[in-house]
Amino acid sequence: MNTLDRNAKGVYLITVTPFTDSGALDLASTDRMVDFCLEKGVTGLTVLGIMGEATKLTAEESRTFVRQVLARVNGRVPVVVGASAPGFAPMGELTRAVMDLGAAGVMVAPPPTVRTDDQIVAYFDMVSETVGPQVPWVLQDHPVSTGVQMSPGVILRILKNAPTCVMLKHEDWPGLAKLSAIRAASDKGELQRVSILTGNGGGLFLPEELTRGADGAMTGFAYPEMMVDVVAAHARGERDRAHDLFDAYLPLARYEQQAGVGLAVRKHLFKERGVIASAMVRKPGPKLSAQDLDDIRFLVQRQDKRLRDLG
């Protein structure tokens, strides 16, 4: 089994959850999606994230989907599972289930009920206790979705208290200064180094985040090869090349990050690329208009041209 650790780097793609037109889990498309992501060179996968419509799945559907992904991956890359839950009992239950299936670790975000610094730190102390001493976990910092602001100081307190928290999923925006502060603290030996993967808007700040010390990306985009190639170019020291590649994809990545319709755009593009059979988003969810589809076609054509020009 691939176990998540502090040296994780590369691209852990946040996957969508494929459904049929009727809204049922589409396990055949799930297999194609896994194959597609691995063919594009991702380092790992993350399932049951916010863009994976985790809150729209039943507990049994969540386990079925994770089981299908892990079986298809078959140990080739690590798989991280979102385990955030309203209470610790369902969090612990899901964690035990997915780890038994072969997950590499779990990811947890703070609930909107924690507000003060001490409340946030105490909550994650209980997360460590709940998932257990053998389970590596990821601290998700995504204030836009959680409403919880965690300062660098609070994150450092959490990491110092939690030896099994091996990764920070950095999604604050703007957050470059926060990323720099956390990386500087570990570089100075103030705490044990953790992996930092970024998730801002499909990688909208990925080149800058890599320069600030991020180890890669943990986010979603209908063209995962963008993140794979940008991270690889940056690791080779080809900073200009990384930015050139990123710039070619940026208009479509930006379009995909629109609040409300972004997931529908991503699923539409996955369908167009032959990855999934249906672009179905479970209710409540948006539908794309004819004008939306025209925008997407135009941006894909321009993206293709830019990539050809870049060679």
From TrEMBL:
Belongs to the DapA family. This is Dihydrodipicolinate synthase family protein. It comes from the Bacteria. PANTHER family: 4-HYDROXY-2-OXOGLUTARATE ALDOLASE, MITOCHONDRIAL, DIHYDRODIPICOLINATE SYNTHASE. Keywords: Lyase. The keyword Thylakoid does not apply.
